[in-house]
Amino acid sequence: MRIRGISVRDIRFPTSLRLDGSDAQHVDPDYSCAYVVLFTDSEAKGFGLSFTIGRGTEIGKLFIAPLVQAIRSLAHLVVGQDFEAIVKDFGAFSRRLTNDSQLRWLGPEKGVLHLAASAVVNAVWDLWGRTQNKPIWKLLTDLTPEELVSCVDFTYLEDALTKEEALEILRSMVPGKDKREEEIRSSGYPCYTTSSGWIGYDEDKIRNNLLISMQAGFSKFKIKVGQDLEKDKKRLRLVRSIIGDNRQLMIDANQVWEVDQAINWVKELAEFKPVWIEEPTSPDDILGHAKVAQALKDTGIGVATGEHCHNRVMFKQLFKSGGMQYCQIDACRVGGINENIAVMLMAKKFGVPVCPHAGGIGLCEMIQHLAIFNFICISGDLKHSVAEYADHLHEHFIQPARIKHGCYIVPDVSDMMRILNNLRNFAPGYSVEMIGSSLINYEYPLGPKWREMFDKKLYEDPSKQVPPYVEHRPETRSSHFQRFHSIQTS
Ligand SMILES: C[C@H](O)[C@@H](O)[C@@H](O)[C@H](O)C(=O)O
Ligand SMILES: [Mg+2]
């Protein structure tokens, strides 16, 4: 089977209208994604996406966009390729995507280009799952240790994890795999919810959300902090008064503090007994994270990070420096499943639990597969590894993530009861295929839902905006630029 084409679309949802997803740093996110479909010379297709929070996904009239365009710039590395050859040496394929001799200048292995690589890699895995009629977690758990290791690019990891060590870890976990698979099928994968306490929610909404989540069986909650210390104390007091002393609480500052400020602020919140402080400072500041972790050691509060961790090399440094007690892999931030396998293997070696990040669109759908695979084949630990769940936008997926009693239900294709109950669950792959009408309605900026919101003045219509560089520097209009402008606007 050969990959014959790729399509990329800018899909956005207006979550900022209700402040869903808001935090101290990202106060008005519109959950969005660059949505990828791989077409082949057979019926089979592969679906992937990379999550963003609005601006930056776009192909505007004049701005040829960051993420969508970056994915298009990778097309020559995937279109025309033989699918079986790709998955036979998947590590080499992922290296080709992230290390193109010219494109790598835009990274390397970080930022927009790496988000783009993850969308493509995720789509190839989805295609693989579909051709095998297996959900991704099952495809992964059925691979041999040797096959899994061949998916990983070990470049720059030799001083932290060699191929041989990776093989040893995976081989040591083969006994007991079936038992763990059975266990996770019956118990589900434990998760916490973030949707109770986004920063933009008022106290009534937080109270209500917590009560509803507790009724649904959640016992672990993450609350946003970091805008105002006294307000944080007030909302955490409220949260503890509702969830009690025994349910778990996590707090997330989304990078707003200086290093010492983080230490002092979190010490002030220690009385509320959070399990972790997430993203206390710049996600790039590995030594800063180590300093925060060290300073908080006596409080029992660990540092969690990863949703903005560019690549395996940064994870390596966080592991080695002791700057991360909870490893929050993200399905799109690093270069897709292959690089996440490397990170999960390092986490095992350094004894750090993997607690995947999922605040965003499509992330819950994907990370459930990674968390389940990690438990069965790498960590064997369910006690400390909790996955995130954010209760937004699942209705747009053909095979949405589903929760029961505060646990992800294992996505499966063979459970006849669930197939009968809900046909939507009958889909192999990575669970990221979106419903056709959602794609049409929410494609930005021409989808009918967006046109409606522009008409109601809820958002500004980008086609009516003058690009700021034209406004500010009219003298830069070269004849070439004018030609381009007239092509774009005609
Ligand atoms: C803007 C986003 O919703 C973030 O706030 C979110 O990813 C968050 O950091 C999380 O941990 O879920
Ligand atoms: Mg976070």
UniProtKB/TrEMBL annotation:
Q: What cofactor does this chain's UniProt record say it requires?
A: Mg(2+)
Which reactions is this enzyme annotated as catalysing?
L-fuconate = 2-dehydro-3-deoxy-L-fuconate + H2O
Chain residue ranges for the region called Disordered: 465-490
A single GO BP? amino acid catabolic process
Kindly indicate whether the keyword Protease belongs to this entry: no
Q: Which InterPro entries match?
A: Enolase-like_C_sf, Enolase-like_N, Enolase_C-like, L-fuconate_dehydratase, Mandel_Rmase/mucon_lact_enz_CS, Mandelate_racemase_C, Mandelate_racemase_N_dom, RHMD-like
Spans of biased composition, class Polar residues? 479-490
UniProt keyword annotations, A-Z? Lyase, Magnesium, Metal-binding
Q: What EC class is this?
A: lyase
Instruction: Give every Mandelate racemase/muconate lactonizing enzyme C-terminal domain span.
Output: 203-299
| Gene Ontology MF term list | L-fuconate dehydratase activity; magnesium ion binding
Q: Does the keyword tRNA-binding apply?
A: no
Query: What Enzyme Commission number(s) appear in the record?
Result: 4.2.1.68
Q: A Pfam family name for this chain? A: MR_MLE_N
The family note in this entry says: Belongs to the mandelate racemase/muconate lactonizing enzyme family. ENOSF1 subfamily.
Name listed for the protein in its UniProt record: Mitochondrial enolase superfamily member 1
The protein's organism comes out as: Notodromas monacha
